[in-house]
From TrEMBL:
GO terms for biological process: DNA transposition. It comes from the Bacteria. InterPro entries: Transp_IS110-like_N, Transpos_IS110, Transposase_20. GO terms for molecular function: DNA binding; transposase activity. Residues 185-269 form the Transposase IS116/IS110/IS902 C-terminal domain. This is Transposase.
Length: 310
């Protein structure tokens, strides 16, 4: 971008070297600080976990489309989640006609066996199967050959999800072992487990690289652009999303966990949630993540244990 200010320069190695030298002479170029090998090792694991999460998300989106084609009312009317063990087994092994015609006790036994005997909770299994049969009767019917093709594709998609989830579990064990080698107090925060801690720590590296928490927020891309002209200043501006996308991802995921498990951040989240009529959840989540950056910087720079305010 600095080179763009020279509108008539050609592109060759000599010119590039000269522009780099001129940029350094111009100032505002800080010495880079490479993270230690310990952080790089943890970063390798947490970034791979990020990729696994993206794969699982994509496969689940693909599966939901196929589930709609096979059993159009399942997602809306099913008494249990789409990606539970019982749901996937049912969708892989039964057609709509079979769900409707199968004896209610036989269907209940199948679901019970494929849910590790945990399906329903306080809800009677007969009530669950009755609701399932009703949803099957009201769903759009496909021709048998189309239904078979969709079922096969859906089964392979479920296999992908199961594989990625098993890889995710293996990676969590490795991640926890690696995290123990790094001294930090971030994990003492209510709602921040080892996975989120590792993701944040590995991307930040040495906290002394940052002079203040605003620098850390800028590095994560949790800053907002300004739009001002004359006496007008826009109230709604866009998140910059520049900087480290992995750190931003783990900070936002942390905010999502904090809004559930941490009373202080829960109240802040709902305060921001109720301030606007649209984009309520996304806005409140990102603002909560930005607030959390201050705590992350304080804990890591001071080495203190988290003490919630009373």
């Amino acid at each position: 971008n600095f080179k763009k200010s020279y509108t008539d320069l050609p592109k060759n190695d000599n010119v590039d070297a000269w522009v780099i030298a001129d940029r350094i002479r111009f100032g505002r170029v800080e010495n880079s600080s490479s993270p230690e090998a310990l952080y790089r090792a943890l970063r390798q694991i947490t970034r791979h976990k990020f990729k696994l999460a993206q794969h699982i998300k994509a496969e689940k989106a693909r599966a939901l489309n196929l589930v709609f084609l096979k059993f159009s009312d399942f997602t809306q009317k099913s008494p249990f989640g789409t990606f539970t063990k019982a749901s996937m087994a049912l969708l892989e092994n039964y057609t709509l006609r079979e769900i409707v015609n199968t004896d209610i006790h036989e269907l209940a036994e199948f679901l019970h066996q494929n849910s590790n005997n945990r399906l329903g909770g306080s809800t009677p299994i007969e009530k669950i199967t009755t609701a399932l049969k009703k949803a099957a009767r009201n769903s759009y019917r496909l021709k048998p050959e189309i239904d078979q093709a969709i079922t096969q594709t859906l089964s392979m998609t479920f296999d992908n999800i199961r594989f990625y989830q098993s890889q995710n579990k293996r990676l969590k064990k490795v991640l926890k072992r690696q995290l123990k080698a790094i001294p930090q107090t971030l994990i003492t925060v209510d709602g921040i487990g080892p996975v989120l801690t590792a993701g944040i720590i590995s991307e930040i590296g040495d906290i002394n690289r940052f002079d203040k928490e605003t620098n850390l927020a800028s590095y994560a891309g949790l800053t907002w652009s300004q739009y001002q002209s004359g006496s007008f200043t826009a109230e709604e501006t866009h998140l910059t999303k520049k900087g480290n996308k992995y750190l931003r991802y783990y900070l936002v995921e942390a905010a999502n966990s904090l809004r559930v498990h941490n009373d202080r951040y829960k109240s802040y989240y709902y305060k921001k949630y109720n301030e606007v009529p649209k984009h309520k959840h996304k806005r409140a989540l990102v603002l909560t993540a930005r607030k959390f950056v201050r705590l992350v910087f304080a804990l890591l720079s001071k080495g203190e244990i988290y003490q919630p305010r009373r």
